[in-house]
Amino acid sequence: MSFKFRGVFIFLLMPVLSYAQEADSVSSLIKNLDDITLSATRFPEKSKYLSQAIVSISEKKIAALNQPTTAELLQHTGNVSVQKSQGGGGSPVIRGFEANKILIVVDGVRMNNAIFRGGHLQNVITIDPEMVERIEILYGPSSVMYGSDALGGVLHFSTKKPAFSNDRHTQFHAQFLTRLSTAFDEKTQHVQFSAATRKFASLTSFTFSDFSDIRQGKNGNKFSGWGLRNFTVENINGKDSMVPNGNPLLQTRSGYNQYSILQKFLFHSRKSEQQLNFQYSSSSNINRYDRLTETNNSGNAKSAEWYYGPQQRLLISWNVHFQHSVLGQGNINTAYQFVEESRNNRNFRSSKLNHRIEQVKIGSLNADFKKDFQPLELGYGLELIYNHVQSRAYAENILTKVQSDLDTRYPDGGSNTQNYAAYASAIYKINPKWIAQAGLRYTTNKLESSLSNKSFFPLPYSSIDQSSKVLTSSAGIVYLPNEKWKLSAQVSTGFRTPNVDDLAKIFESGNGNFIVPNAELKPERTLNYELGINARPAKNISFRANGWYTDYTNVLTTDRSTYQGSSTILYDGVQSNVITTVNKNKAFLYGYSLDVNISFLQHFEIQSAYNYTYGRIKEQTNYPLDHIPPAFGKTGLEMKKGNFVFALYVLYNSKKDSSDYNLRGEDNQLYSADVVKGFSPAWIIYNFRSAFKISEHLNVQFSLENITDRFYRTFSSGISAAGRNAVFALRWNL
């Protein structure tokens, strides 16, 4: 049986190997059309009134999945594909869009900043999964409500919120978690405390996780040597040496650790509710595992060291929610963010260790309002965002410790971006069966970069300036023939404004290409058409289906260019092609997603999700668009009775043929089963999880993931997934 048909078979007919969500989990959106979404309109809204496809993951579901990072959590929902280049990573893909083409939002504040790149991003791991209360996945362009970057959709993370006391006494609560897992020797500790009165509440959280090197699966690898870690580089007596790895299944130098802190204060008065939100996350150095496995034509390692410095994220926000007789329901959210990241690399048997450090400071203000004029609901608001990027670099001699100048990744004089936007949206309830939606947003963007030290590259200019204005819109219709069915249609546009990474990056990409800035870039644009069905034809059966088509224009890609009249340049000892980023391509994407739930015998529930995406660049002979994952999904069965939960589920991907690989972009054929043409074989893993509530205060969880110890890599990944993994967790609530 081919994998394509096997995937359909699993989706439809595998109740024995399936895993159902809990009543308030992902499946709840298709069980109950009155379910509330929090992020689609920036205010609570019944999903039955919205034409956009939305999936919600609850706090109970997040705890039940019991995953070590937010990236792994998204992968295990079956609704998001995740690429990985290193142990401390995870780059979500929504409808074939990835990295800076999907928007990540935390508590209403956008995480995407001026240096979010177009390849693969690991920033999502800075969000502590133990403090996430709800995840909402908004599919398709969401630019009316969220502005730039929401081409494929939005990942909106709501972290836990302190609750007020319901009586006159001060209430105190505490929660503790300890989790151990075997495939990467995980050790996670989490503690949170809360205190509350009727008008004041506080929530404090701390999480620390330590991960050793990942052991990949040993069974099912039909490609000789693929993925095996046969060597590691060690510096012995001042000289780099390739040392044989005693256990090729152990992906050495993939371990790391990180910690997260969250503090929230909630205040309540007669007219408003205010929240002060503090979040901080940092990690150890994180090795870029895929780069450390590369060898040259002579069989020598390319890199002796390649690691990201500590990934630091600070968020401080102040949120005010209020009711006003004229303005309506209001929500003001002002925030400051600080992000620091660095790239550090040294070639094999070189004494020069390069350090490139980026710091980004972001200030933002969102003012959102909702006014009810039944049967019309009007939403409107303003958004202001400012980014400042500072880039510095130096080279270090590892033998003498002497430092020397090095070219920076971005303009060394600093870069600023400014974004100003206003939007309006409306939901009009024509009658109980027909609901119309519409939205409009106007955005202006400005970017300024300064080049102060041109000793490395004497470019014929000292600054880079760019500005753009974008009008984006959406319109949708919902038909509710009865309480069991919902039919929807939507047309929406999206955009992504070129940021500092697109416009002003001056850096060698690592593939023999040298990038020069281009100040003439225009925003990328999408036009999306979508049809959806949500239904519950019987009390115990529900399903959701969405089909969509997207036109993608002004696509940013790289093209050959010149530097001082030459198409090549000698950079860092390597003759490199000169390239620049341009708006060159047009593309199209289409696909569909299916979710089915079946409850039976009172205690059992089946859930299955399936996602398919196809994308091509419009050329004389259409060429594969990069970032398009193969069809993927999840199917499972859960039994819940009393204090005991037992679940079996499978995660699966179909194959991605060489004919579907983009060899000019970010599909990473070098790390696939075919390093020349690209090929990603199909895979399926079987998983088990259980939970037992010993008492009102103590819950025990045990999981066995990848039961058959299957070797596999998610599409475009440069590191293999974990093999058989036993997970044990204890949760105390006091």
Describe this entry's structure for a reader.
This protein is mainly beta and 734 residues long. The strands form six sheets. The protein has a 22-stranded antiparallel barrel. It has a five-stranded mixed sheet with strand order 3-9-10-7-8. The chain has a three-stranded antiparallel sheet with strand order 4-5-6, with helices on one face. Helices cover 6% and strands 55% of the residues.
Helix/strand layout:
Blueprint: H1 3-13, H2 28-31, E1 36-37, E2 45-46, E3 54-58, H3 59-65, H4 70-77, E4 81-83, E5 91-94, E6 97-98, E7 103-106, E8 109-110, E9 132-139, H5 143-146, E10 153-159, E11 171-181, E12 186-196, E13 200-211, E14 214-215, E15 231-236, E16 239-244, E17 250-251, E18 256-268, E19 272-283, E20 286-287, H6 289-292, E21 303-308, E22 312-324, E23 328-347, E24 352-373, E25 376-397, E26 403-405, E27 415-431, E28 434-450, E29 463-482, E30 485-496, H7 500-503, E31 507-508, E32 513-516, E33 524-538, E34 541-560, E35 568-571, E36 574-600, E37 604-617, E38 623-624, E39 632-641, E40 644-653, E41 683-693, E42 698-705, E43 725-733
Parallel strand pairs: 7-10, 32-36
Antiparallel strand pairs: 1-2, 3-9, 4-5, 5-6, 7-8, 9-10, 11-12, 11-43, 12-13, 13-18, 14-17, 15-16, 18-19, 19-22, 20-21, 21-23, 22-23, 23-24, 24-25, 25-26, 25-27, 27-28, 28-29, 29-30, 30-33, 31-32, 33-34, 34-36, 35-36, 36-37, 37-38, 37-39, 39-40, 40-41, 41-42, 42-43
